[in-house]
Design a protein that fits this description.
two-stranded antiparallel sheet; single chain; about 90 residues
Length: about 90
């Protein structure tokens, strides 16, 4: 996940030189809000859909195997569009 530098800079702890130790995304809440229509313009591509997309792609077999291994190991889920900050928690140390 990529966080906007502007959003991170607003965090006072980061201005003081602390390091991000964990970024958490409330994926269950995103799924629920997308399903209810409360979060418009955002889509979630679930793990099985990511793998299916890789399998059906026309990339060379070696690249396809590499991508499948990476996505499978990470339990890859993709979120389309920008994620509102209320769904993101940043822990610093």
């Amino acid at each position: 996940m990529v966080l906007s530098p502007a959003k991170l800079w607003k965090n006072k702890s980061l201005k003081e030189g602390k390091i991000i130790s964990r970024v958490t995304l409330d994926l269950d809440k995103i799924r629920a809000d997308v399903a209810s229509g409360d979060l418009k313009g955002v889509g979630v591509i679930e793990h099985d859909e990511v793998l299916e997309g890789i399998r059906n792609s026309d990339v060379p077999p070696g690249v396809k195997t590499y991508l499948l291994n990476c996505a499978t190991g990470d339990k890859e889920v993709l979120v389309k569009s920008l994620i509102p900050s209320c769904f993101i928690q940043v822990k610093v140390r």
